[in-house]
Design brief:
Length: 150
């Protein structure tokens, strides 16, 4: 009988410690949209606008958006790269432009696969994340490709 009580007490103590030891995690910010991308320097980089809102948890103070792009450019070759930023949360819709730099090959106009990772953190470094995968269009900037005026 004493052994059963000891085991039950140990199980109850372990259950209590597990529920107390788990810290509360911040609610993730809302990732609203990403793209389209604007080619920079003939594909040497792409500027991708990312829109998000840190209004899900009043404790959120920092957002870290990360953008990864991959694109089939020619003959089955893949251009790929990433970029990120760190922004203070304002509790309102925020749009930040992330510059994505390719690893080897330049990006071209057309469709690209995008993975957007948004991490948001409180002052106590309690962080959460949201990830979206989508397809975005990469285009030349407005007015690019026009002949010079004489």
């Amino acid at each position: 009988m004493l052994g059963t009580r000891s085991r039950l007490a140990a199980v109850a103590l372990a259950a209590a410690l597990v529920t107390v030891a788990a810290p509360a995690q911040a609610a993730p910010a809302t990732l609203v949209s990403a793209g389209p991308g604007i080619l920079v320097a003939d594909g040497a980089a792409v500027d991708v606008p990312v829109t998000f809102v840190c209004d899900t948890d009043p404790a959120l103070i920092i957002a870290i958006p990360v953008v990864q792009l991959t694109q089939r450019v020619s003959d089955g070759r893949i251009a790929g790269g990433g970029g990120n930023d760190q922004i203070s949360c304002t509790k309102k819709a925020q749009t930040v432009t992330i510059r994505v730099v390719p690893n080897v090959m330049a990006f071209n106009e057309g469709a690209a696969a995008a993975t957007v990772f948004l991490q948001s953190c409180s002052a106590q470094f309690q962080c959460s994340a949201v990830i979206i995968t989508t397809e975005i269009t990469l285009a030349k900037p407005a007015g690019a490709g026009l002949p010079p005026q004489r």
